[in-house]
Amino acid sequence: MVLEIFLAFIILFFVMTFVIENLTNYNEPLGFETEQLWVSNLVINEMDSIDIVDMKRNLKRELEIHPNIENISFGGEMTPFGGSHSATGSDDNGFFLLSYLFEVDENYLAVADVPLIEGRWFNEDDKNSKYPPIVLTKKLYDEYFDGRPYMDSIYEIHGERKVIGVVENFRYDGQFKEEIPMSFLYIPIENHETPSLYLRLKDGVGIEFEEEMTALVAQVSKLDNVTIDHVEQRRVRSNKSTLIPLVALLSMCGFLVLNVALGLFGVLWHNISKRRGEIGLRRALGAYKSNIAFQFMMEILIIAFFGMLLAALFCIQVPLMDFTEIKDIYFYQAIGISTLIITVLVLICALYPSQQAARISPAEALHAE
Amino acid sequence: MLQSYFKLALKVLSRKKFFTFISLFGISFTLMILMLVTAFLDNELGNHPPMTEKDRMVFMDHAWTKLMLPDTTYIVDSIYTDGAMVYDSTMEVGEAQRSMSRSQVSYYLFEDVIGDVQGAQRRTAMVPYLSFSVFKNNKKLELGGMGVDSEYWNIFDFEFTEGSGTSAQDFKNSKQVIVITEDAARDYFGQKSGVVGMEMELDKKRYKVIGVIKKPDTNHNFVSANVFIPHSVLPDFIIGGPDELLTSFQIVYLAENEESVQIIKDDLDRIAGNYVMPNPERRNRLGFDAATFNEFYADELMDTDTFEESINYAKIILFFLLAMFVILPTLNLININTSRILERASEIGVRKSFGANTNTILAQFIFENIILTLIGGVIGLLLALGLIYMINTSNWLDGIQLSFNLKVFIYSFLITLFFGIISGLIPAYKMAKMQIVTSLKSSGK
Question: How far off is chain A from B329, nearest CA to CA, in Å?
């Protein structure tokens, strides 16, 4: 029985680590509002840079006045849940810094509802500033800056840039992923690299508007292949790849634990019925019913405790030896939760058989003996 | 003999219903999940159309270019000896990576840089991840597309329900022809068959349907598109200009036989190593990520540095999970069986004193246990079939359609048998060895 509890604990430990890690990430704020936000990665073929800027201007002019659209913004090739990343890393600043990059324009703050906590967002005057501006996420600052001054300072991040603001968080690569350190770069409308288009819709505007919107964007931009995605749908889709293994693992683990519990229950019951004589004798000598029940509960708890202790000693090696990149805290939490689950389970399983044992009448038990 | 064992087994099982329930619950759920896992693994990694020849395929979905520069590392050791500091510095010249790009490859790389590869019988380059939005009857259809050549249809054996794949002639002449899946035909034309010769409009271009295929059961990106067009009709910005190494193609080689797979990989490494980069001041190394399907599959799950590492890790983790998953219910079953068998001590005592030997008794208990596991196996099978049906109809796994075939059934049966024998052996052995006196005495209780 010790072995069984030992194994159950180890399985619970691994599954719980995975679950806790993902759920913790899931509960962190995303850093932008996905509802009513549409995005289109424009696929541009055979257009020179002037045409691209013209196209962006036309789109801005035509879409801004559309009654269903609240606000529009242009970004770079990276889009939320788009699956692609761009990063820069160096130790040119005298300390190592690796930042993922996300290109946006001055309207993005309002379009995506990004939580700016310090400084300011980009504005049109930034086009002419000596150093291009950059907005950091708090995560990037915490990870690398080590208390160094940052506001209005010049740092080498994809070229020399001046820090103008800090954003609380921005997790564009997936809700179950750990936040990556990143910064926002400014691309004014004159930027001619492959753009993406963001649309913030007015409340109450729904999917039925999509076909019209697609046609409008295609017509104004003169592009053949325009696909508009709903960021909310992208979020749900990107979550699915984590959610399915998560649910599968949890149900497998749940079944295993239930299986162990039932087994425990059966074995306990059997053991107690074998010890009727002993129970009868103790009752005859004046033990209370509660004494008997307590004795059996304690017996099983001690056995379970040893199993768990042994398993915990094993499990704790995982964070101590740094086998993985998963944060240590999740492992400790997983140990705590596994202990809790198994203890509760053992108590529940022991409760009924112990009650049965306590109900044995001394006369009958001794007679049978 | 067996018949009486069988009757006895059923009698015993119905006597202690609660214990029977616990045993059956454990057995059937364990087997259900094992069957599901087998069905899933078989679906994803087994040899089924369109990847029947999977073991002979080498996939190359990415290549990378790097700029490596000499890098000098100084290490200064300071040692405090005899009241003075002594410095000992060593210098190492190595290489440091300054920049890197990793992307899908270009047609130029496929045709001109690599060309024919030793050990490869066929080769194809395709453009995956095309996507077309079509509005049909006020509904948005998102069609995943792929640009292919004629060899694609020779390497991947899709099941055609009508028509055929892109011909070499059509490909060469950049004819606007299209092969679609049954699902795409149903969504676009409203009918699953009889659509060959009809026209489909994507991105303002009209394509003539030349073939309809069954949608593969797996959603792996090498085969999972709804529409297949010749990549010769794609615009230049997708194909890439001359001398461009990285654009949007993926490559598949079909080896002459399974042994040639390694030859292909080695030859690709050789070609990458010998290639002289056109702009060495910007990028001076070229490398290919070529791997077998299993290696790719493991790599997607594992995120390690090399394909070999990924597949090893994946194997270890899978083995660990399955082992845990089998051991725990087995232990449970052993515990319960021990309790059950102990209750029958008197029966054993009587049988032994009338001359039954240990082996007979052992055989009887194991037989009983196998009956129990078989009953559990049948329940598990039914549960698994139900779950597979649910998964397939609700499309939980995004296009993966599990099927229950003979192979899965045989595996499941073997697992069941193994389960029954192992979990019955230990308690039965304990019991069969029991002294007659002890067992008869304990019957008084």
Answer: 7
